Amino acid sequence: MLEWLTAALGDDVGFWVEYLTNGKHLAFYASFRFTILAGILGAAFGLVFGLGGATLRRSGFAPLRWLGMGYINVVRGVPDVLFFLFFPLAFEQAVEWIIALNACSAEVREAATRWPPCAEANWFLGTTEYLLLASVSLGLVYGAFAANVINGAMNAVPRGQLEAARAYGMSRFQVLWGIQIRQMWVYALPGLSNVWMLLFKATSLLSLLQIADIVLWADRLGAPNFIARVGLVHGDWRWRYYLVLFIFYILVTWLSEKFFKMLMRRAGRGILAEAG
Amino acid sequence: MKTLILAALAATTLGGAAIAQEVRLGTEGAYAPWNFMGDDGEVDGFEIELGNELCERAGLSCTWVVNEWDTIIPNLVAGNYDAIIAGMSITDERMQTIDFSDNYYPPDPSKFAQAAGADINYDDLSGIRIGVQGATIQAAYAEQNFGENNTILSYETADQSVADLSAGNVDVVLADGGYLAPIVDGSGGALEFAGPDVMIGGGVGIGLRKDDDEIEAKFNEAIASMKADGSLNELITEWFDPPNTFPEE
């Protein structure tokens, strides 16, 4: 199949095909799954937290409303890198603290100079656990943005329509579900598409959590190698691998745009003239 | 009820003694030729072959865990793995937190590598950028001796410090001689050794938790047997050029 390529480009092609499909590179390609999974799971969590946050923010009960406002304003203000480091660690240590209450004796807990106080209370975080925690972190951070977008979109639905619906005899729930939420998506989708893109870009932070993700592998594969026994001898190739990551992220952006356009058409049926 | 649990516990412990004890070995996977990612995507290197051999001699069933260098000690203490085999020099500072086995690689002089032909006065280093890997004996040494008049740049991996040396972002790199030698050799004349050798550290050993005396004893016995039959020196000669072997007894 590659004969015409070899003919066109010379024998080097065979060498490069082999190099680019060795175990190290296959592991690099496979690591894209972490990024994609974290993006999708993060978005799912983000939507849940966003809808929850917006609901709290719009609650008629003041303490709940304050909780929603607190979530939206505090979490939006914290840099995502910091939150990414803070949340999984805090969560892990909280769990270990709870385990330690049962697993370690009181004397050991009080005398302990290290964490966790006894070996039984250690919670080992592997890639799966870190991936889940990373997704929840992404969801929490970008959920706050999504909550703000959804809250704004709910306010953007013309009040006159809601009043008219009430006047037609619809119940409060029917107005909320059939009129306000139904039309809210049209106003929310452009903002949510922005939030999604920011969230997906933040998946490049996964290597901070000991996940062997695409950034880590790009670093490893691109690092110069001077020892023949270790593999192909080459200089600093990191920029080439970073370029591959650039292209990947741009590709995802392009696909996302298409996807959101489709969603917009669906959400806008009967509302937007151009949606038909 | 209590006795029942104790009995069950005793049964599992005794039962466990019959099959090989499971030990997880932590390494960095970014420090060739000590430990690195092979073309097949699995860890490879001097320490991988050594670790597997030691485990076989000690009757342990070992698996490898890759962990970044800067968290490799905390994660050992936390129990994410049971031993560090990652080119870690034995130092007093580290001994406060963890234990070490006997050394399996003799004390190795640290060396300065620079771009070929660079004009640097090693008798009185000042105003230059020195690259080191963070949390290493070289990082501590550079900070202590050259920190005042120079810029010390610390990197997450040793490979990154060398990459920045080739790119001209640092003037010299201070690292283990055994790590730098093949790099300088293979650089095709772009890099060279310069300045004095610096002796730091007491050789390289296996890092272990302070309370794991049983594993420590097993590893020490296996290391001693590899020193005695010459196979450790053979392995060093196979992976390092020039080899830094133990003196014949």
Describe the structure.
- The complex is a heterodimer of chains A (276) and B (249).
- The mean pLDDT of chain A is 90.
- Chain A has twelve helices and no strands.
- The relative contact order of chain A is 0.12.
- In chain A, helix 4 (32-57) packs across helix 8 and helix 6 (80-103) packs across helix 8 (127-156).
- Chain A is flat and about 80 Å long.
- Chain A is mostly helical and 276 residues long.
- Chain A has two domains: 36-207, MetI-like fold (Orthogonal Bundle), CATH 1.10.3720.10; 212-269, no CATH class.
- Chain A has helices at 3-9, 12-20, 23-30, 32-57, 62-77, 80-103, 106-111, 127-156, 159-167, 172-202, 214-222, 238-267.
- Chain B has helices at 2-18, 46-58, 72-77, 92-95, 137-146, 158-166, 177-186, 213-228, 231-239, and strands at 21-27, 30-31, 35-37, 43-44, 60-66, 83-84, 99-100, 110-115, 129-133, 151-155, 172-176, 191-198, 207-208.
- Chain B has two domains: 20-106 and 202-239, D-Maltodextrin-Binding Protein, domain 2 (3-Layer(aba) Sandwich), CATH 3.40.190; 110-198, 3-Layer(aba) Sandwich (D-Maltodextrin-Binding Protein, domain 2).
- In chain B, helix 5 links the parallel strand 9 and strand 10.
- In chain B, helix 2 (46-58) packs across helix 8.
- Chain B contains nine helices and 13 strands.
- With 249 residues, chain B is an alpha/beta fold.
- The relative contact order of chain B is 0.18.
- In chain B, the strands form three sheets. Chain B has a five-stranded mixed sheet. A five-stranded mixed sheet of chain B has the order 10-9-11-8-12, sandwiched between helices.
- Classes of the chains: A mainly alpha (276), B alpha/beta (249).
- The A-B interface holds A 22-24, 26-27, 114-116, 119, 122, 124-125, 210, 212, 219-220, 223-231, 233, 235-236, 238 and B 29-30, 32-33, 36-42, 44, 66-68, 71, 77-80, 157, 159-160, 162-163, 166-167, 182-187.
